[in-house]
């Protein structure tokens, strides 16, 4: 048997008869599951539509990734609702699971760039820089010799 706490926060609870309401799995305010009358919900959605606001569920979303400076938040199995009014869109995401991924492990997952010593020597000689500067330029250019040379020329020029 499911039990739901009574919650009177911001007037979001409605008067309902026990025999007509169903449980809606939305979380309101303090993380309490609320019973929502389907008729009342439909009435509220129609009222929003008259005001030029539409609310739709985005189907087929597998995950949402929020890229922070030091880590990524991976929201898995999300329910995504899109509220549109005018040219604005607001996305509401309720995640099934949340996983944090540190930035270092993201970088490590990227394929390593193999840079030959011949390329390093060529770039160093051509640009007139040390082999270490040439190696760093090749790494930044992902192994592209021409791009590395352009970076070094812009740096010295």
Instruction: Count structural domains.
Output: 3
The major beta sheet can be summarized as:
3 strands, antiparallel
Helix proportion: 25-40%
CATH architecture of the largest domain: Single Sheet
Q: Identify the quaternary structure here.
A: single chain
CATH superfamily of the largest domain: Nascent polypeptide-associated complex domain
**Number of distinct helices:** 5
Q: Rough shape?
A: elongated
Write the layout of secondary structure elements.
Elements: E1 22-28, E2 32-36, H1 38-50, E3 53-58, E4 63-67, E5 71-76, E6 79-85, E7 88-94, E8 97-102, H2 103-109, H3 117-127, H4 131-140, H5 145-156
Antiparallel strand pairs: 1-2, 3-6, 4-5, 5-8, 6-7
Helix pairs in contact: 3-4, 3-5, 4-5
Give an overview of the whole structure.
The protein is α+β, with helices and mostly antiparallel strands and 157 residues long. The chain folds into three domains: 1-51, no CATH class; 53-110, Ubiquitin Ligase Nedd4, Chain: W (Single Sheet); 112-156, Helicase, Ruva Protein, domain 3 (Orthogonal Bundle). It has five helices and eight strands, in the order ββαββββββαααα. It has helices spanning 38-50, 103-109, 117-127, 131-140, 145-156; strands spanning 22-28, 32-36, 53-58, 63-67, 71-76, 79-85, 88-94, 97-102. The strands form three sheets. A three-stranded antiparallel beta sheet has the order 3-6-7. A three-stranded antiparallel beta sheet has the order 4-5-8. The protein has a two-stranded antiparallel ribbon with strand order 1-2. A hairpin with a 3-residue loop joins strand 1 (22-28) and strand 2. Helix 3 (117-127) crosses helix 4 (131-140), helix 3 packs parallel to helix 5 and helix 4 (131-140) packs across helix 5 (145-156). The protein is elongated, with a radius of gyration of 27 Å. Mean pLDDT is 76; it is low at 1-33.
């Amino acid at each position: 048997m499911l039990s739901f706490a009574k919650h009177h926060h911001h007037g979001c609870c409605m008067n309902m008869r026990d025999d007509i309401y169903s449980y809606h799995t939305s979380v309101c305010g303090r993380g309490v599951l609320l019973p929502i009358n389907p008729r009342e919900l439909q009435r509220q959605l129609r009222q929003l539509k008259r005001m030029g606001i539409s609310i739709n569920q985005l189907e087929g979303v597998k995950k949402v990734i929020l890229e922070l400076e030091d880590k990524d938040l991976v929201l898995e199995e999300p329910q995504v609702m899109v509220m549109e009014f005018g040219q604005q869109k607001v996305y509401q995401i309720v995640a099934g699971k949340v996983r944090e991924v540190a930035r270092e492990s993201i970088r490590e997952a990227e394929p390593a760039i193999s840079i030959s010593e011949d390329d390093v020597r060529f770039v160093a000689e051509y640009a007139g820089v040390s082999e270490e500067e040439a190696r760093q330029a090749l790494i930044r250019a992902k192994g592209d010799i021409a791009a590395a040379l352009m970076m070094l020329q812009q740096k010295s020029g």
